[in-house]
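Section 4.2 – Deliverable D4.2 (structural model, holo form)

The reporting period included a commitment to supply a predicted holo structure for the target in complex with zinc ion. Inputs used:
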Amino acid sequence: MLGDFMYCSPVRVYFGRKCMRRLSRELAPYKSVLLIYGTGSIKKNGIYDQIREILDLSGCRVREFAGVRPNPDRDCLYRAVSAAREFHPDLILAAGGGSVCDLAKAVSVSIYCREDPWQRYYLQMKKPDCPVVPVGCIPTTAGTGSEMNGCAVISDPERQLKIGHVFGDDVYPRFALINPAYTLTLNRQQTACGIFDIMTHLCEQYFSGKDDCATDYMIEGLMRSLINSSRAVMADPSDYEARSNIMWISSIALSTLLSKGKKTDWMLHMVAQAVGACTDAAHGSTLSALAMPYYRFIYSAGIGRFVRFAVNVWGIRTDQVIYPGADLYEGNEKMPDAEELARRGLDCMEQWMKELGLVMSLSQLGVTEDMYPDILRGIKITKGGYRRLTKDDVIRLLKAAD
Ligand code: NZQ
Ligand code: ZN
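Output (structure tokens):
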């Protein structure tokens, strides 16, 4: 059963090849724009020139903050905030992947913050109590969904912390220009990492609860489309149709639409973020290294949903008429071979991950046992999933993922 909720996306989304045409209209209310971007990809693939031309014609004052690295850290946040404080932008425009979009949102709540923003928003998890500067996003990756949510993930490499703060509606981007063609220049590994990030965002919202909930059927459809388009894009990286499906699924998956009125898990992300804090590895790789051991660790506690995953997402069929509703209803825990079906679904997922060429173990990311205490320290245990992990469980999980 869906619980009560309020839903309103504050993000105006323009999607497709021509969406950049909307930028000049979106800039109209603003006089000064801080353009934030990464370490060079938008200059190589021409996106920067397109944006700069529109900005120059807009009559806005423009300042750039460039060089945002993947997994943006506290120091990058401080530098961007001090550049922004000198310039007083009334719009922050982010052009890049999740790292750039996240940094832009973190800056938006920090410019007028009277305290140290890292302390306030990330260590103390307080809400902003100051004006928030509007943000617009031009995503160039498909994966995080940052362009349609209020989350901003920032790291502190010295203390090995990577923390996501989910801010409120006022921090969501005001607009997002989502052009799937911008993802055509991602390499195979970046593409695969993004696809798997999307899959886990869907999984974290799907593997929770035992009730009949419309959202879970929506998630199954998105998972099937993602798997289909991921195979198409791996076969032909220039496949715009596949890229467009992946990009839209990415945006919806973490827009909060799929978590409204239902329980969610997020434990995989909690452990992956802690691993990311200790390794600086790509977010998608930290998830792929942990996912199979995690789901194999918890599936028996949510067996009905994992059977459904096998049947509805991976298309595994069974001859036994004893549970004709296996693809429709939960509560099939007593099925004779429920375990077997659930395991086969997970085997399909593992096979697909290998097809994508994803990292499948923590040792590939340089994780060693002496890092476990730091990883454990950075983990927040969530309670929405099928199994609430203890610290010992996390150690077992890390060892299984080694
Ligand atoms: O720095 P540039 O030159 O832009 O290069 C980037 C970077 O090296 C490159 N890239 C981006 N777009 C490209 C491109 N290369 C070629 N063509 C393009 N079109 O890709 C590399 C990775 O970029 P990054 O932004 O780090 O990747 P991603 O989009 O995966 O973002 C990862 C960050 O988002 C956080 C992650 O933790 C991580 O810090 N997340 C944010 C979330 C959110 N806001 O809701 C949720 C996620 O679960 C995640 O935690
Ligand atoms: Zn993620």
